[in-house]
Specification:
Elements (H helix, E strand, L loop, with lengths): L4 H26 L6 H4 L8 H21 L5 H25 L5 H6 L9 H13 L1 E5 L5 E5 L12 H10 L131 H30 L4 H17 L2 H5 L1 H15 L8 H30 L1
Antiparallel strand pairs: 1-2
Helix pairs in contact: 1-12, 3-4, 3-11, 4-9, 6-11
Length: 414
Amino acid sequence: MELSKAKLEIYEKNLQCLQEAVDELMRRMKGYDYSFRREITDRKGEFCPEKLHGLVEEMLSLWEEMLCAKRFIKKSWVKSYLRTRRELYGLYLYLVMRCSLYQNGYFCAQGSERKERTDFAFLLEQAKWFSRSWCITDGPDGSRQNEPHNGYDSHFGFHFYSPINHYLTFQEVNVGNLDDDWAMTPPYQRAENRLYSRTGRWEATDEPEEAGLPQDTDEPEEAGLPQDTDEPKEAGLPQDTDEPEEAGLPQDTEQPEEADGPDMDGEKLYDGVSDDDGSAWAYDPYDLEDDEFLSPLDMMDEEERAAWWEAEYEYQGKREERNWELLQIVLKFKGMDEYCSACRRFEELFKGAETEILRDFCQELEEIVNLYLSQREIAPLADTETAVDMYGRVCEGPLRQARIYGRGLQWNDL
């Protein structure tokens, strides 16, 4: 049976309607419609530090009250439980919400197409990405410490640390130098450049790096090497005797020069080569000027070289554009010192945090956010798996009715 163009258009419209329904359900389930922008900005839409600190304190206080309200938990235990968690989670909430106000800032700093959003679902998404990069490394003094696999700077919330430090040092921003010594984690300190383990099971061993290396032992050497013994030597080697030597080189004589092969001093290697006037010259491969070395561009034809330069100009243009946009964002950034101090304090707490704190990092942040949303009668956030399961339950009845209706249409057409 062939489908007409009109029926195909109807099917496309139906599929589009279903897609819109799914997207709307996902937004409702994950809290996309509720933004914290108004909670941390003034009437003019400008960032307000006091309101942001108040929002973070309110969220943490609600979580603390919920823990204290449980009958089987003692208040003394709650205080010890929250001693590190409260500050660590509060700093993370502050950093992510603080940076969410600057659109296109992550792209300018990191070159990634990730878009900033000011909803709580985005906050938890970044916490999940950050938690997945957690690993355990060996500190400079041999102790274990926590660290993100590729450093802090590439994660959302910390991506403005390097540009701000670079600007405070040089009064400019260069995206090509954002991973240098002005970053939170310089390249030589990042876990990706060192041995690391998520579970701490990988340990350095005392085994030699390569097999077959000679060992300091008292065993006699093998492989035909001479030994300090009185036994006669083997394999036709010359002996310290008065007898004539056998099949070997004569003693106390100079070895003859090799007759075959060119002279390796380079003077006679290219004899016979001459210029146009007939004068002979010798070629020295080490006697070259700097401009005589061929670059990759010299190996291209004119069309390839033109395409390469066009791509290079385009790259440099995009880089200059990123520099300019990032500089404008940094100039409008309020409270640079407070932001950088929060980044450094979070790094300090994260390095020394206990394993169970970082293991429950995402789960407890989700509890804090959902508790705050429930106080405002907003549906708590749910992850994608929960939303899909809920969607299946909601659509199970209509789908069954649609199948019955379809069978009925087929029966009527018979």
